[in-house]
Amino acid sequence: MAASYISNLKAEAVTKAKSQPKPDIAQIDVDNPSKQELDRLLSKSVNFGKYKGYTFQHVLMNDYNYFKWMVKKMKPDWVMTKVFTNLV
Description:
- By secondary structure, the protein is mostly helical.
- It has a domain at 32-88.
- 57% of the residues lie in helices and 0% in strands.
- It has helices at 2-19, 35-42, 56-62, 64-73, 79-85.
- The longest helix has 18 residues, at 2-19.
- The chain is elongated, with a radius of gyration of 17 Å.
- The N and C termini lie far apart (55 Å).
């Protein structure tokens, strides 16, 4: 009975999380992002290079020169690129 109850709670939590709208990354003010928006972008994982699988925040904090290099290699029209350019 307890397992069924827990299973139902998990299912409800997943349904609730999926139903809540996620903020659109394109709506971020690239010149003045909120702390929450910046944290969300920095928490994304790098998908290439020697820091593949690490977060952008990890790279920024541990290898600033590599972070700057990554930002230069990112597509210039990406919102992340515009926000990160303001960090370097």
